Amino acid sequence: MRWFDKFELAAENPKMGVARPEIASDVRLLFEGNYVTLYEPASYGILVVAVVYGGRDAESWL
Which InterPro entries would you find in this protein's record (predicted)? Predict the structure, then answer.
């Protein structure tokens, strides 16, 4: 699955990603290949906050 396909799926199902309240109260994660997308559910779908290389330390994602 490509990023944009996964973004569309998440927009239709905003709570499908893994919740990470230790990062921020509404942040969820999607994984695609070596990359992690941080997003927040929104009334219109999702708001992509960041796309980061998954090999990086999670502390440096934001």
Answer: RelE/ParE_toxin_dom_sf
Instruction: List, in order of start, the domains of the chain with CATH numbers.
Output: 3-60 (3.30.2310.20)
Model pLDDT for residues 7-25, shown as the tens digit of each residue: 899 999 999 999 988 888 9
| Residue 13 phi, psi (nearest 5) | -135, 70
The end-to-end CA distance of the chain, in Å, is 25
Q: Estimate to the nearest angstrom the gap between the alpha carbon of 26 and the chain centroid.
A: 10
User: Under a CB-based contact definition with an 8 Å cutoff, are residues 52 and 62 in contact?
Assistant: no
DSSP string, the chain: --HHHHHHHHHHSTT-SEE-TTT-TT-EEEEETTEEEEEEEETTEEEEEEEEETTS-GGG--
